[in-house]
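Customer escalation, tier 2.

The customer says the design service returned an amino acid string that "doesn't look like it belongs to this structure." They asked us to rerun it and document both sides in this ticket. The original structure tokens are below, unchanged.
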């Protein structure tokens, strides 16, 4: 038996590294286990950029975004690193798009300022985009991108500075829940703690099944494409907002961050996969689909493909998260099913998970994210 801890965190992506940081900040003895290297490419937290925005159709996410922005700024101060870069956000689609209309209503109800732009107004303000006459756009000035890998590394480094033990390249072999504690077995050692936080990304289904929790968590193989823009200045972060296209097939993208190219992808391409057996080679047909859409709506961005990548989502049926405690072992809490839009809330979710583990409650109403909404198999 190894050293005993107040809390063990499994998974050191954005959620897990945040949980480890907030636990260590609270003065707890923390062990964090990561099956790969910290900031690895095989999951959902790696990369140059992720979108952070208020533009949601559900008010819970708008409320959470308020605190997430604050927490990321606080992390910048604590780490001395620039992690959040304001670009503004550009949501566009057909004027009668239900999600576009609902986003307007939600922002209005939350008193978040935004502009509702006609195609001509959009062309004058943001010539990067090409809208058809029947389209409209929402511009929300606070939207930004997060330097994703830098965020994960900053949280992990601060957790370590505050005393947390971080063990990369340490897969969990077995979880052993006890009445008032938990044992975590690795290949070489066993660790025990009073509390356990599980944030295993696409591997959550496999981890939770060890605890007799069988939730509808589907890992999916997703892809992103980076284009060399024809006009570099036009697509620089200080001129080009993050963008989301509202349609049956949702496209999204970010400006040319650090010269890596304009990033464009399809949200929830939903190519179901086993996270341990993923084809990591991007598909030519997918790249061409994204290229054609980019040529249509961001014509001066659609230059040569600089890079294409495969990454993972973990989808729930309703695309809302699962943040909850184990029904039989309340000292085990977990976050899962972030469905391709959770990174922006990573710092906040780590904080909430640490609160749940330590006190049994959280500072946010998490009713939307309870696992009880999914029928458990008998």
């Amino acid at each position: 038996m190894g050293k005993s801890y107040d809390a063990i965190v499994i998974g050191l992506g954005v959620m897990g590294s945040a949980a480890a940081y907030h636990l260590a900040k609270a003065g707890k003895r923390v062990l964090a286990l990561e099956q790969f290297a910290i900031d690895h490419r095989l999951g959902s937290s790696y990369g140059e950029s992720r979108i952070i925005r208020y533009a949601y159709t559900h008010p819970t996410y708008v409320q959470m975004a308020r605190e997430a922005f604050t927490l990321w700024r606080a992390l910048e101060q604590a780490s001395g690193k620039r992690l959040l870069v304001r670009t503004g956000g550009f949501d566009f689609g057909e004027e009668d798009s239900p999600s576009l209309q609902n986003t307007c209503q939600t922002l209005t109800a939350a008193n978040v300022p935004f502009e509702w732009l006609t195609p001509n107004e959009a062309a004058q303000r943001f010539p990067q985009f090409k809208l058809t006459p029947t389209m409209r756009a929402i511009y929300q000035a606070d939207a930004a991108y997060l330097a994703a890998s830098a965020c994960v590394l900053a949280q992990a480094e601060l957790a370590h500075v505050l005393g947390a033990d971080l063990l990369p390249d340490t897969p969990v072999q077995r979880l052993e829940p006890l009445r008032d504690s938990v044992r975590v077995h690795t290949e070489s050692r066993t660790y025990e703690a009073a509390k356990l936080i599980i944030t295993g990304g696409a591997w959550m289904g496999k981890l939770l099944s060890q605890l007799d929790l069988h939730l509808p968590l589907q890992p999916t193989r997703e892809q992103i494409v980076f284009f060399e823009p024809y006009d570099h200045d036009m697509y620089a972060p200080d001129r080009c907002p993050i963008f989301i296209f509202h349609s049956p097939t949702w496209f999204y993208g970010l400006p040319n961050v650090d010269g890596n190219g304009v990033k464009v992808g399809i949200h929830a391409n939903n190519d179901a996969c086993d996270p341990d057996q993923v084809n990591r080679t991007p598909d030519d047909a997918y790249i061409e689909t994204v290229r054609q859409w980019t040529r249509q709506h961001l014509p001066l961005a659609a230059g040569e493909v600089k890079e294409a990548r495969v990454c993972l989502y973990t989808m729930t049926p309703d695309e809302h998260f699962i943040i909850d405690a184990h029904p039989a072992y309340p000292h085990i809490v977990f976050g899962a099913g972030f469905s391709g839009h959770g990174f922006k809330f990573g710092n906040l979710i780590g904080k909430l998970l640490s609160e749940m583990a330590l006190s049994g409650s959280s500072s946010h109403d998490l009713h939307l994210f309870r696992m009880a909404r999914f029928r458990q198999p008998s």
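Tier 2 assessment: The sequence is consistent with the input. The chain has eight helices and 20 strands. The helical segments are 14-25, 59-79, 98-109, 119-125, 148-161, 204-209, 284-297, 346-359. Sent an explanation to the customer and offered a walkthrough call.
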